[in-house]
Specification:
- The protein is mainly alpha-helical and 232 residues long.
- 60% of the residues lie in helices and 6% in strands.
- The chain folds into 2 domains: 18-135; 155-232, no CATH class.
- The chain contains 11 helices and 2 strands.
- Strands 1-2 form a two-stranded antiparallel ribbon.
- Strand 1 and strand 2 form a beta hairpin.
- It is globular.
Length: 232
């Protein structure tokens, strides 16, 4: 190894050491706790979570849920508590990106905002964090997709799905209708996903959510809802 290579190695090591020791450990620890509270309740309500794991989660949370609806109510309470704290932290620090709290803790504020009613308020700082590589761009566009869907528009990257209970008129049985929300220019969605950094296609992403991907327009969905006596 020549002198130039030695100096480069030393410089890289110093930069890495600096980045690791320059983190706000107190903030990092708090955000990790918030992230855990955000995710563990969602693991509980996930249909794929085993009964034994649900018992473990109840022990961790200190709650014994009588039914799934109680868990959803508790999830909303946790989300409300978390976003209030994130409001305070953003006022103090701005978006807590990877240079401030490291990875993957830099995703915590994103998750809490994504699960709140303040997405549109905070999207500009989320977008900025993505532009300066403080946050993965894939998360930025997931939030943008959700904004579009909330406004009744077509999403761009196919990240947003929906589960809704409908009554099958032919059988009279309630069924869970699962679908990916309408996508703008769906033929090119996988090219857009790849360009922004997603590792999966829209079809693969849908399967991860337990959905078999099918293209729907809002007109298609409205017809489905009307046929099944659902007012959307």
């Amino acid at each position: 190894m020549n002198l130039k290579q030695v100096l480069l190695s030393v410089l890289l090591f110093c930069n890495l050491s600096y980045s690791q020791t320059n983190l706000n450990i107190e903030l990092k620890t708090e955000l990790e706790s918030i992230y855990k509270s955000d995710q563990i309740i969602r693991e509980y309500v996930n249909a794929n979570t085993s009964d034994s794991r649900k018992s473990e989660i109840e022990n961790t949370l200190g709650y014994k849920f009588e039914n799934l609806n109680e868990a959803y109510i508790r999830m909303k309470e946790i989300d409300s508590i978390n976003i209030k704290r994130i409001d305070v932290l953003i006022q103090k620090y701005g978006y807590a990106g990877k240079s401030l709290v490291g990875e993957p803790t830099n995703e915590t504020m994103w998750y809490v905002i994504q699960h709140s009613n303040k997405i549109k308020k905070y999207y500009p700082i989320i977008e900025k964090a993505g532009m300066v590589n403080e946050l993965p761009k894939t998360l930025v566009v997931k939030m943008y997709d959700r904004i579009l869907i909330n406004e009744g528009k077509e999403q761009i990257y196919g990240t947003q799905g929906r589960f809704i209970l409908i009554k099958n008129r032919k059988t009279g049985v309630d069924e869970m209708f699962k679908y990916i929300q309408p996508i703008k220019n769906p033929k090119s969605v996988n090219a857009r996903r790849k360009k922004i950094g997603f590792k999966t296609t829209v079809e693969e992403n849908a399967l991860e959510m337990g959905i078999i991907y099918k293209r729907y327009t809002y007109k298609d969905l409205q017809k489905t809802f009307i046929e099944n006596d659902i007012i959307n």
